[in-house]
Amino acid sequence: MSAPDRDVVVVGAGPAGCAAAVFAAREGLDVAVFDRGRSSLARCAHLENYPGFPAGIDVGTLSDLMRAQVERAGCALVDDLVESVERSGDDSDDSAESDGSAESADPDGPRLVVRPQEGDPVAARRVIAATRYDGEYLRGLGDDDAMFEVHDHGGETHEHFDREYADRDGTTPVDGLYVASPSEASRQAITAAGRGARVGKRVVADARIDAGWWPDAAEGVDWVRREAELDDEWADRDRWVEWFDEEHADGPVDPDSERFARVREAAVDDALSSYVDADEEAARAAAGRRALAGRLDPEAVVDAHGADALLDAMDDEAVAAHLAGDESDAERPDEASP
Ligand SMILES: Cc1cc2nc3c(=O)[nH]c(=O)nc-3n(C[C@H](O)[C@H](O)[C@H](O)COP(=O)(O)OP(=O)(O)OC[C@H]3O[C@@H](n4cnc5c(N)ncnc54)[C@H](O)[C@@H]3O)c2cc1C
């Protein structure tokens, strides 16, 4: 079987999909996020209960910020509507579909094929559904009776995606399919994001398990930590190796095996790479603020800070050039950014 085009395809760039995509991409997985169609987020007049925004946030700005974060994390954002998801090689054996037990012959091969409205089909190892309103594109992928539930509204029957079809970590009976939304968490933006994060972490752990990690070793945290908090003992790589050996001595993999050594190497690399020094912390803080400022309209910034504070923060030559009417000499803010 040929290699997949993507490790992960996420369907939907709302709070659930963006959170899932960021967690997966930060692990180094190759992620594409498809986004088009009916959005719950777009219908909010103003979001006032999402942490971090004291006066609330308009959904256009939040959406821009989330999409920028997804791209910065390394995902490809694709403006296209997903029409269906099929199992790779679906021509083969339909009998295995209902319980989702069919697997690709090659564990590294694609499991699913995502068919968008306009672009080419994309083969993926894993697909995360993150669309509060729409699960129709999943019809036929597994057991429809389990995936959809029928409701009776005033004598008329309607079918909805079953919000409890997936487990809390998004796993489903269909190999390679995860559902972040619709779920019970989809009714509020922040809980939708939390569910997306949980599903993204599940996908990361499962990708590691595919690569030879065992479940206890594969579960981790995505943290960025201060190097200054590493005391002398833990600054030494050997201490981490020792810790890993202690943690997994009684695990399912022989500590003397090549597999154990390979996973330990990757786990220790992962732990150590989460530490940043003070300069890096400051650089990331500055980049974070700059990215936020870039989404604000200049009038809002002047209003919030006052013209004097902004003029003080500006380069004198740029102000002088502006006053002289020679704006071409004044450095534009985006050019001034490294
Ligand atoms: C009127 C209204 C007001 C609300 N107000 C609030 C509020 O004040 N506070 C609050 O916490 N929550 C509020 N909500 C709920 C909030 O909008 C949802 O909880 C949240 O948006 C769910 O996020 P999600 O990522 O699961 O889905 P969505 O926000 O719906 O995001 C799904 C994304 O997937 C895309 N998509 C859909 N189908 C496809 C497809 N087939 N292929 C590709 N892309 C697709 C959509 O375009 C969309 O961008 C409100 C909802 C409504 C309707």
UniProtKB/TrEMBL annotation:
Locate the FAD/NAD(P)-binding domain: which residues? 7-49
Q: Does the keyword Translocase apply?
A: no
Q: Where is this region: Disordered?
A: 84-119
Spell out the molecular function terms from Gene Ontology. Answer: oxidoreductase activity
Q: Which residues form a coiled coil?
A: none
The record's listing under InterPro entries reads: FAD/NAD-bd_sf (IPR036188), FAD/NAD-binding_dom (IPR023753), Ferredoxin-NADP_redctase_2 (IPR050097)
Signal peptide location = none
Instruction: Name the UniProt key words of this record, in alphabetical order.
Output: Flavoprotein, Oxidoreductase
What SUPFAM superfamilies does the entry give? FAD/NAD(P)-binding domain
Pfam families for the chain? Pyr_redox_2
Extract the PANTHER family matched here.
THIOREDOXIN REDUCTASE 1-RELATED-RELATED
Q: What is this protein called?
A: Thioredoxin reductase
